[in-house]
Amino acid sequence: MAVNTFESLRGQVLGVLEPLPVYRNQDVNENFAAVPIFKNKLVKIGRNSRECDIIFPHPSISSIHCMFWAIRFDDDSVPMHYVKDCSLNGISINGLLLKRGQTCLLEDEDVIAIPNACEYRFQAKIKMLTSDLIEQLGFQVNVENWRLTSKVVGSGTFGHVLVANEKAEPTRHQPRSYAVKIIKMKPNRLDKEAKILLRLDHPNVIKVHMTFSDDRNHLYIFQDLITGGDLFSYLAKTDCLSPIPETEALVIIFQILHALKYLHSQGVVHRDLKLDNILLCTPEPCTRIVLADFGIAKDLSTKHSRMHTVVGTPEYCAPEVGFKADRAAYKEFSRAATMEQHGYDAKCDLWSLGVIAHIMLTGISPFYGDGSEASIICNAKIGNLDMSTKQWTKVSEHAKSFVRSLLETNVTKRLDSSRSFQHPWIAKHKGHLEKIYQKKIIPDSEPRQSFEETNWKRKLPKSVKLSPTSVMNKKARKLELS
Ligand SMILES: Nc1ncnc2c1ncn2[C@@H]1O[C@H](COP(=O)(O)OP(=O)(O)OP(=O)(O)O)[C@@H](O)[C@H]1O
């Protein structure tokens, strides 16, 4: 895309790359204009004129040399700007080299040098909007070998997720940034999320490096910073969720299946799989995805074989979990309600994957009805899927059958995480998917840094408010009754 066509793109400019006059007079520099960065739009720089937005034909420049993007958790948060080095010859920020394949969080006024092409000064267009959370909530800035920043990656029911930097000896390379989820805890109780995550190690499961608790009952969970935003934002490019091509959906589903097969083999059930909890490393097709938010995950490896607590997000929740359409029923609700039906098992995650697959292929949530919680719960219980609508016309029969096999109300007939790999939709493309997985996904993940266990249990919010659900409500709420 020529530079000036950026002007025609609608949307708010979140950042700008201002060229510095380093290479202005050289032949290599054909593109000497400011580069705007919009939400949900990658800016690729390199030699390949078909793939890149800014083209530098110099032989030392890689086909795609580097790319820039901005992630904004919601309209109240400050955008996070990233650059990823995809080159052979490298790029640097403020004189420090990026490792090959490294993604780096940009700061206002950073200078990014692309040798033999251009140097840019990055300017953030939206700066700190909110007051400093660290001070407001009394978080500890220095935690062992880490230093918290005031950058907020996201917030949820249980806590806030900030950017943290590891304190390391200066080297010639850019240091990595991490995410730290901070949760208010009840003292001396065990935190399940941290405990579960510390023992897991899989390319498609969020990697936790260390946990720490301060004297104000805050638990800090230091983990990889996943830089491409969540799947909800990726699909919500306009005012509604847009479907993605079947091949792109397949690559995501294949990775979720790998994660679920691993989790279930470890006795862990996620119980809150949804678009918001699937994070992307880069906001583009064929990127590595990571399952996050294990706040209500269950570890069945010790004693229980089935679960009875009604928990999750109704829009994604399997009918056997036991959400009730009638709010009044919750007043009398107890574990016995799902005990009647012998509880539920790990296949609840496969139902949620069915909802996610349905949305990715059509842009529509399968049981949404009039959008009320009652209607979603009733529709899911009946389990009728209408695949005669126009949204399904371009979707293959194999893909439809896969979605049906997961959104199966009869749990015994529903596919589990191992058998899902044998479904014709996956099996037919398995060779290709495996190749992408081995070549692109696994090499992109890095090993865990350190390991430590804690003994804290989170403090649940006093009241969990139930409001009518909406597919556009990013922070779709969870209901925990037990
Ligand atoms: N490691 C990470 N890297 C990047 N972003 C993250 C990371 N962890 C969480 N986030 C962002 O922060 C948001 C909130 O995190 P998380 O879902 O873990 O919190 P929560 O309090 O458990 O949320 P919920 O209300 O869904 O239970 C996520 O939706 C995601 O956008």
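^ adenosine-5'-triphosphate complex. The first helix runs from residue 133 to 137. Residues 73, 153-159, 161, 179, 181, 206, 223-226, 230, 276-277, 279, 292-293, 295, 478 surround adenosine-5'-triphosphate (CB under 6 Å).
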